[in-house]
């Protein structure tokens, strides 16, 4: 299961600008009690998102529900090594998602008795992930 779009408007996209500002809009939990929040701007590949989703599903199983809040919709191109300049843009190398600082990556909803399991799982995934993240809990 790859996290890439089925259809796209253009074949290849331009690089675009980076978002250095911290967002406030997307940092509230909507669906779950716990979430993983990025602390700075980064670009996450679809393989890293698959790793995040699979590790969460593997540990949480049917005790909770995992919701991903990001999707890799930007294609990144790369020219092969030792190719001369010119001759157009290179082929698609990988798909990525631009993550603003302060935005949620995933949410987990579970019963109250499994809260410690979810926190341990998110904590173990934090160290595997390439960017600095923080565990967020819903205030009730």
**Number of extended strands:** 7
- CATH C-level class: Alpha Beta
Percent of residues in β-strands: 25-35%
What's the helix count? 2
Summarize this entry quickly.
The protein has 140 residues and is an alpha+beta fold. It has helices at 46-60, 115-128; strands at residues 34-38, 42-45, 64-68, 74-77, 92-99, 104-110, 133-137.
Overview of the structural elements:
With 140 residues, the chain is an alpha+beta fold. It is 21% helix and 27% strand. The protein contains 2 helices and 7 strands, in the order E-E-H-E-E-E-E-H-E. Helix 1 runs antiparallel to helix 2 (115-128). The chain is elongated, with a radius of gyration of 17 Å. It starts with 33 loop residues before the first strand and ends with a strand.
Task: Produce the secondary structure layout.
Blueprint: E1 34-38, E2 42-45, H1 46-60, E3 64-68, E4 74-77, E5 92-99, E6 104-110, H2 115-128, E7 133-137
Helix pairs in contact: 1-2
What are the key terms here?
4-stranded antiparallel beta sheet; 2 helices; alpha+beta; 3-stranded antiparallel beta sheet; 140 residues; Aldehyde Oxidoreductase, domain 3
């Amino acid at each position: 299961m790859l996290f890439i779009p089925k259809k796209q408007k253009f074949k290849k996209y331009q690089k675009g600008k980076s978002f250095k500002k911290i967002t406030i809009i997307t940092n509230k939990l909507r669906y779950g009690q716990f979430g993983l929040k990025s602390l700075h701007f980064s670009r996450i590949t679809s393989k890293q998102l698959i790793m995040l989703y699979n590790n969460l599903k593997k540990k949480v199983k049917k005790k909770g529900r995992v919701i991903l809040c990001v999707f890799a919709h930007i294609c990144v191109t790369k020219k092969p090594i030792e190719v001369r300049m010119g001759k157009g843009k290179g082929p698609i190398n990988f798909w990525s998602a631009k993550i603003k600082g302060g935005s949620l990556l995933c949410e987990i909803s579970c019963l109250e008795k499994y809260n410690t399991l979810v926190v341990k799982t998110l904590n173990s995934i934090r160290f595997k992930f390439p960017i600095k993240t923080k565990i967020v809990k819903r205030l009730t």
